[in-house]
Amino acid sequence: MRIGVLVSGNGTNLQALLDAEARGALAPATVAVVISNRPNAPALDRAKLAGVPAEVVDHVAFADRAAFEGKLLELLAAQRVEAVVLAGFMRKLTATFLDAFPLRIVNTHPSLLPAFPGLDAVGQALAHGVKLTGVTVHFVDASLDGGPIIAQAAVPILEGEDAAALHARIQREEHRLLPEVVRLLASHALTVRGRTVVSSGS
Length: 202
Hints:
Layout: E1 2-7, H1 12-22, E2 30-36, H2 42-49, E3 54-56, H3 65-78, E4 83-87, H4 95-100, E5 105-109, H5 121-128, E6 132-139, E7 149-156, H6 163-186, E8 190-193, E9 196-199
Parallel strand pairs: 1-2, 1-4, 2-3, 4-5
Antiparallel strand pairs: 5-6, 6-7, 8-9
Helix pairs in contact: 1-6
């Protein structure tokens, strides 16, 4: 399965996918193209270093969201992309884009959804004083971080821990979980029943 990865920043989740592919742990998925909405995103360099096509679709260069997404879809189609991973992609996608990849767009979120959706989930968790947070990998739909949950990993919050330290530990779980989910998706091992995702574990 050919995967398109949309990025906006550093690209550590992208790197986890590239590393998994390099050691043969992503098959039958392969990263076909990386697209950034920010021209200077370090994630683009990660893609180029791995020999993966890297494209820039700067959202500010387009008159509206429809034109921006149209260009994204054009580039994904040119690379025969079958599924999309949002790896720190900081643009909300409309139904037009989502409908092009039904139940084939995956995102990671740094909390145990449905807790703390939206921006600064790590800060939200600390502000609420919870003892446990984590990471969620989920399918993307039109809701805010509300698509069917594929996998989660819990991360305990340590006494006196700040947001940066907690986020770093959450990212380690993201980097472990995301490639495994992409592998299962490419293996057609994920079935959605209502809001529940069932894995055959292929």
